[in-house]
Design a protein that fits this description.
- The complex is a heterodimer of chains A (663) and B (255).
- Chain A has 663 residues and is α+β, with helices and mostly antiparallel strands.
- Chain A has three domains: 1-190, no CATH class; 192-319 and 520-663, no CATH class; 351-492, no CATH class.
- Chain A has helices at 2-17, 19-44, 51-93, 98-139, 151-178, 181-190, 199-218, 222-257, 259-262, 265-276, 278-316, 333-348, 389-396, 458-473, 495-513, 526-580, 584-622, 629-662, and strands at 321-326, 351-368, 371-373, 380-387, 408-414, 421-424, 427-433, 449-454, 484-492, 520-525.
- Chain A has a seven-stranded mixed β-barrel with strand order 2-3-6-7-5-8-4.
- The radius of gyration of chain A is 32 Å and the shape is elongated.
- Chain B is α/β, with parallel strands linked by helices and 255 residues long.
- Chain B has eight helices and ten strands.
- The longest helix of chain B is centred in the C-terminal third of the chain and has 17 residues, at 233-249.
- In chain B, strands 6-7-8-3-9-10 form a six-stranded mixed sheet, with helices on both faces.
- The chains are: A alpha+beta (663), B alpha/beta (255).
- The A-B interface holds A 189-191, 194, 259-260, 263-265, 268-269, 272-273, 275-276, 573, 576-586 and B 58, 79, 81-83, 85-87, 91, 93, 97-102, 106, 109-114, 116, 118-119, 122, 142, 144, 158.
Chain lengths: 663, 255
């Protein structure tokens, strides 16, 4: 018992004596834990609006943050253990056996893990609570976001981080036990050997990165975006690490080989210094790069979503009340729907304006080149909405050309390039694009490739209807589509009174489908939908900003940590150089060139990642009905610009710290 | 021709509170002729390191002046000091002060790189130097891959490559075993015979016995000096030992 107490005392003394290095280490591990816990508790919070889609999205983030945390902790630990090896060597020489040292390392790790987990989770709970309070105050949600303490999130965080700490512990023990005491005493002096070029790693990283980029560029619809996003992220992360580790070494070696470049006072010290500890540097830079990318992606997309919300509402609902009857219940449905609306109008004394109605047949099929058919295996999902010309005209308030030819399909609007001739369920059709400017309200919430087709006459309409019915009858587990009726109109009253009308109206239309099978009504009042959506995008914005700020903090911390650690490493070098005849301004310019190259490289790569991520992000956003590509690009560009400014500020602050240490 | 002239040097260290003043150098004057090999001896705390730091213009004296060639080094502005040091002085330190991140060759090049010399010029200069110092085969190795003696040779090469007026050596044999010490001291004699002026601070009698003249510092003043003249090295060694004994026992009592 007393022996254990002694070990604890010794471990504690070791940690406090090395506070200079342990404090940043604990700080980093506590921030990564805060990050992970926050994300995890969001995942488990069932009170968030649309919590299902939240969880799905957060589900992508969690493994990424976890992998990142592991790499990051290993990286910071490697600095630490290098310093501590010498101390352990001394203990060994003074008579501690290796098993005693092992116990000591275990206890030290235990203390660090417990402190970090307590701080991390405690801070996570606190920051979550505070941010929820702040956000509710600012955004004023109709239903306030509810903060929820989540025990499963705590348990999961503790268990998963315990794994990381155990892995680090094993690595440290193996590393310390491997070396002889004399070597232990001198490790710090000998430093790392100059790294070799690693071509295998370079090629592997390049392939991985390109694969990730290709997934994004070739992504064609929201479905693929959602399923492949995580894979692409992982590939890019692997690629980034490999290339930062191997690529930077290769570049520096090339620079060093160029004698006229290398033997210049402002390059000489920095190139050799960077090369000397490039293995660690590579990981550190990759960390910064990945985190930066995460911040930019997260904030860029959520800002796009928020900014696009108004847009969506306006185009999605072209009139104040929109009602869709799924399935034509009987021949007279159109008249019945019309009567219900006007009866309620008479009853409430609120007038109806701009009444419009149409019938549409939405068919979904799989596309292989120009062949559109039932069955989606190996095909890309495509949706067609069929309209009759007079419905299309009245609903979208426009005039179609006359003399539409029977048997031809006319494109009203399309989210993709339609071929001129297609085979639809086995029958060939000619396709003509009417080149209409996209009518307001048409296809604004469609995620997959879709096309609004104007069918010239009843005959053509029936042909297609029969074809799709036949096609789907032969396909297992699929149902043929049935036509929908859409009724939209405006109300001539204040927004407040709209509800008076709408509540009655909703009751009346629901009676119509009560007791029927396979029929459904979906009805929306524009202002309700807008509020709903604002709440949804608002909480997304919150989440994105929250995580973005968290990641930003982590980035700043890594940069700071890196500078401090390297500052202590380089202190002696700069002292020697000053003795040999380097003056203060030369020291300054050397540091500047070294730090500048190293710091802005990750930022540039992060922007590059962002650029290549745009296609998949745009598709991902289209699942949330954001189709304004220009808006997304602008939002992301602004995010990048702001991030660059913050990055520069952090850089100047940390490089000052570095300069202070080496001087 | 007098190369280095030190006149009435005084250095007082003041503690932050100003309460305790330590006079490291009281009044030191001497001069070094061109081509001379001078050793400065003294016990710990005698002020020899302070003297060397001031000579190296790493520190400023409280009073007095130093003239190197025909330049008063005590008047050189702060921003020109580094360049002055680089071009006129060569340093050899007890703990070598080689950079672990550089190969020996790059360590030797460091002052030239800082002076902005071209690579071909550097190559031209290092070749005969490396041969003379016997480190040709080690140039591409890193400091942690070679022995102490080899490190010190590289450090000497770094000091010599700028063709300095004077080499300032601070306990150059302090971290070396006796074989490596002998070899380094013979090397110093060799380069001195070729005309290089050397000023060495040491408390090793053996190291000092290699010099042409030995100055003894005690309590911040030059207490005594011995010229080697025609004496053999062993005689010189004996003379130095006697002087040190006198220094230690005579005058104020010391431990």
């Amino acid at each position: 018992m007393s022996k254990i107490a002694f070990y604890f005392k010794m471990a504690w003394t070791n940690i406090t004596k090395n506070a200079k290095f342990y404090v940043p280490y604990i700080l980093t591990s506590f921030i990564t834990i805060t990050m992970f816990y926050s994300l995890q508790s969001f995942c488990n919070n069932s009170n968030l609006p649309r919590s299902a889609s939240f969880r799905e999205l957060m589900g992508f983030g969690l493994p990424v943050v976890y992998i990142f945390s592991a790499i990051f902790l290993f990286y910071t630990n490697s600095f630490l253990i290098r310093r501590r090896k010498m101390e352990f060597g001394l203990f060994n020489i003074l008579g501690m056996e290796k098993r005693h040292i092992t116990v000591l390392i275990i206890i030290e790790t235990l203390i660090i893990a417990i402190i970090s987990l307590m701080l991390g989770i405690g801070f996570g709970i606190l920051i979550n609570k505070l941010l929820f309070l702040a956000l509710n105050r600012i955004v004023a949600f109709v239903t306030p976001l509810v903060f929820e303490f989540s025990m499963p999130a705590v348990t999961k965080t503790v268990i998963l981080f315990a794994f990381i700490y155990i892995a680090i512990l094993i690595k440290n023990i193996v590393e310390v036990l491997k070396v002889k005491p004399l070597e232990l005493l001198s490790v710090q002096k000998s430093g790392e050997k100059e790294p070799k070029e690693k071509w295998v790693l370079t090629v592997f990283g390049l392939i991985s990165l390109i694969a990730g980029y290709v997934i994004s560029i070739t992504c064609e619809d929201a479905y693929h975006a959602i399923t492949l996003f995580f894979l692409a992220v992982v590939l890019v992360i692997i690629g980034t690490y490999c290339l930062f580790i191997s690529g930077t070494i290769a570049i520096l070696k090339i620079l060093k080989k160029n004698k006229n470049y290398y033997y210049k006072s402002n390059h000489f010290a920095s190139i050799s210094g960077m090369l000397f500890r490039m293995k660690q540097n590579g990981v550190g830079l990759a960390n910064i790069c990945i985190l930066s990318t995460m911040v930019i992606v997260m904030i860029g997309t959520t800002v796009s979503l928020y900014a696009g919300a108004n847009d969506i509402i306006k185009t999605r609902y072209n009139r104040e009340v929109s009602t869709t009857y799924y399935g034509v219940i009987d021949e007279n449905l159109r008249d019945k729907a019309h009567d219900i609306a006007y009866d309620v109008s008479k009853k409430t004394g609120i007038e109806i304006e701009n009444y419009a109605e149409y019938e549409t047949l939405e068919i979904t099929c799989g596309r292989k080149d120009n062949d559109f058919d039932a069955g989606f295996v190996g095909a890309s999902l495509t949706t067609f909405d069929l309209y009759m010309p007079e419905d299309f005209e009245s609903f979208y308030e426009l005039k179609l050309p006359e003399n539409l030819e029977s048997g031809v399909l006319y494109i009203g609007a399309s989210t993709f390039e339609m071929p001129k001739d297609i085979t639809l369920f086995g029958k060939e059709f000619k396709v003509i694009d009417l080149d209409l400017s996209k009518p307001k309200g048409l296809m604004s919430v469609i995620a997959t490739d879709s096309c609004a087709i104007i069918v010239p006459d009843e005959e053509t309409y029936e042909i297609i209807n029969k074809l799709q019915k036949a096609a789907y009858e032969n396909t297992d587990g699929m149902l043929a589509s049935i036509p929908d009726i859409d009724i939209n109109f405006d109300l001539k009253c204040s927004e407040k009174d709209e509800h008076k009308f709408y509540d009655e109206y909703k009751e009346a239309i629901n009676e119509l489908v009560d007791g029927t099978e396979n029929h459904n009504i979906n009805s929306d009042l524009r202002q309700d939908a807008a509020n709903d959506f604002a709440e949804f995008t608002g909480s997304f914005l919150f989440l994105g900003t929250f995580l973005g700020v968290l990641f930003l903090m982590a980035t700043a911390l890594i940069m700071y940590y890196k500078q401090i650690v390297e500052g202590y490493d380089d202190k002696r070098n700069f002292e020697i150089m000053q003795k040999v005849g380097m003056d203060k301004s030369e020291v300054k310019s050397t540091i500047k060139s070294q730090v500048l190259t190293l710091f802005f490289l990750p930022l540039l790569v992060a922007f590059c990642h962002m650029g290549f991520a745009l296609p998949i992000l745009i598709h991902l956003l289209s699942a949330f009905a954001i189709t304004n590509i220009k808006l997304v690009v602008i939002c992301c560009a602004i995010t990048c610009a702001i991030y660059a400014i913050i990055y520069a500020v952090v850089y100047s602050f940390t490089s000052k710290t570095y300069y202070k240490i080496v001087n | 021709m007098t190369l280095l002239e030190v006149k009435n040097l005084q250095k007082i260290y003041t503690t932050k509170s100003g309460a305790n003043n330590v006079e490291a150098l009281k009044d030191v004057s001497f001069s070094v002729e061109e081509g001379e090999y001078v050793a400065i001896m003294g016990e710990s705390g005698s002020g020899k390191t302070t003297l060397l730091n001031i000579l190296a213009s790493l520190d400023k004296p409280t009073k007095g002046e130093i003239v190197l060639g025909n330049r008063k080094t005590t008047d050189i502005k702060e921003k020109d000091l580094a360049a002055f040091r680089r071009e006129n002085l060569g340093f050899v330190f007890q703990d070598f002060n080689l950079l672990d991140t550089f190969t020996l060759k790059d360590n030797i090049f460091l002052p030239l790189v800082l002076s902005g010399k071209s690579y071909s010029e550097m190559e031209k200069r290092i070749e005969p130097l490396a041969k003379e110092l016997g480190i040709e085969d080690l140039l591409l190795k890193y400091p942690y891959e070679v022995s102490g003696g080899q490190k010190q040779r590289a450090a000497v090469a770094r000091a010599l490559i700028t063709n300095p007026h004077i080499i300032l050596a601070d306990e150059p044999t302090g971290a070396l075993d006796s074989k490596a010490s002998d070899s380094l001291l013979n090397l110093f004699n060799k380069i001195n015979e070729e005309g290089q002026t050397i000023l060495m601070v040491t408390h090793s009698t053996k190291a000092a016995s290699h010099a042409k003249r030995v100055l003894f510092i005690k309590d911040g003043v030059v207490f005594h000096q011995i010229y080697r003249g025609d004496r053999t090295r062993d005689e010189m060694y004996q003379q130095i030992t006697d002087t040190l004994t006198t220094l230690a026992t005579g005058g104020e009592s010391r431990e």
